[in-house]
Amino acid sequence: MLLSDQMWLWARGFEGGGPHLDLLRRLAHWLMKEPELEEEALRANVRGRKIEIERQSLLAEIPPVKITAPSGQESTVTLAAAEPGLSRASVDASELGLYRLTDGTLSVLANVGPENPREFQEVVSTPERLRPLAEATGGTVRRIASGATGDIALPRLVSMRESPVYGGSDYAAIKRNGASEVKGVGVTPLAIGFLGLIALLASVVSAWLFEGRRGRKDA
Known about the structure:
four-stranded antiparallel β-sheet
């Protein structure tokens, strides 16, 4: 059936038909190297602080899986056969971070805990992180909400030429880099007095005549 051009017979229900849609979909995914349909695959799923390892293979003997913790500590786990062609194992994760698993041929990564744990270590609004960089380049970092009431106090924005400092107690400066310069501005009106009025009336009359002629033709 796979090497013939008679798949359409299944779709037409010939002699009871067949699962042509499932077969063609899986065949297309297999040709596109869909990981779920590969005969050799190593997977790792994280559930809380537990890593579930799954090895799909046609081999008679499944090699052990080496696990490398985020700290670099290594351990080895032996997988047990769960069903034909599928072996599983489960290990407890004592550390948060990215684990690397390999059986010598296939490798997979598993993340335990939040994806960016450092972002949750100090979830506090503070200007101190960027202050050294801003001050080293002549800038300034400040809060626009002050006090317990959270009143907004925006600094004055001023434009400055070359200067070692671009911020003060009550202002924040924007550096003029001279990338552009306006030489002059010219204004030309599109309609001047009566000429504009005549042009407007002419366009209205033309539109009225055109609509009238088209209405008579339709009648």
